[in-house]
């Protein structure tokens, strides 16, 4: 397939031939699903906590005698069946994280990129508006580039060839925009935004 290459003003300055089948011969939806679930599970804090009957405040004394009162039998006020008592199946902090094989994650990343290319959801730019030689961060320059590409209102992943601190600082204040060097891409990062912006050098890498 032939992709248009744009400059920072949104003008087409060239084209780029790429075959999604060379990146990933096929797209395995189950593998992509497993990878996305893994990345989302690893983001969970797992800090939920409720108290059992042994942790809430209150006496353990039996409220009244077992028989002869006409009421149902009852134990202490900390029972999980009473208001103010502990939770019967209390939640405790836990780690939800798990890992997939490295080669499976690498294959999922390539499949995710191939699927975005096949769906024409990747915009190629010849160069980024800001490089490491810039005097300082310029958020307006990055916002102007995205607007020129028609992505001003979308969630966007920008994938440069390598980490650029000045460009990252320029983009971090824009809502919905994330910057990830091509070497750090994963299936979740590629699939979550509405569009992907890459440089030609990044897609070569």
- Gap from first CA to last CA: 18 Å
Largest sheet: 6 strands, mixed
**Side-by-side strand order of the widest sheet:** 2-1-3-6-4-5
Helix share bin:
25-40%
- Unreliable spans are none
Q: What class would the helix/strand composition place it in? A: alpha/beta
Mean pLDDT: 92
Can you count the helices? Answer: 7
N to C succession of SSEs: EEHHHEHEHEHEH
Share of β-strand residues:
5-15%
Shape: elongated
Radius of gyration, whole Å: 27 Å
Instruction: State the total count of DSSP E strands.
Output: 6
Structure explained in plain terms:
It is a single chain. With 205 residues, the protein is of the alpha/beta class. The protein has 7 helices and 6 strands, in the order E-E-H-H-H-E-H-E-H-E-H-E-H. It has helices at 20-23, 29-42, 102-118, 139-148, 165-171, 187-191, 200-204, and strands spanning 2-6, 12-17, 122-125, 156-159, 177-179, 195-199. The chain is elongated.
């Amino acid at each position: 397939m032939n992709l248009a290459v744009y400059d920072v003003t949104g003008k087409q300055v060239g084209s780029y031939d790429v075959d999604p089948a060379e990146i990933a011969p096929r797209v395995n939806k189950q593998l992509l699903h497993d990878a996305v679930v893994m990345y989302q599970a690893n983001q969970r804090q797992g800090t939920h906590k409720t108290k059992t009957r042994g942790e809430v405040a209150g006496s353990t004394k039996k409220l009244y005698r077992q028989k002869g009162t006409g009421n149902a039998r009852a134990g202490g006020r900390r029972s999980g069946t009473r208001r103010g008592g502990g939770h019967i199946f209390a939640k405790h902090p836990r780690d939800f994280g798990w890992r997939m094989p490295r080669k499976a994650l690498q294959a999922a990343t390539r499949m995710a990129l191939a699927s975005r290319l096949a769906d024409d959801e990747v915009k190629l730019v010849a160069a980024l508006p800001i490089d490491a030689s810039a005097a300082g961060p310029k958020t307006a320059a990055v916002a102007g580039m995205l607007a020129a590409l028609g992505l001003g209102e979308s969630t966007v992943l920008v994938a440069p060839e390598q980490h650029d601190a000045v460009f990252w600082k320029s983009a971090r204040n824009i809502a919905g925009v994330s910057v990830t060097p091509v070497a750090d891409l994963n299936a979740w990062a590629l699939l979550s935004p509405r569009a992907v912006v890459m440089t030609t050098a990044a897609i070569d890498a």
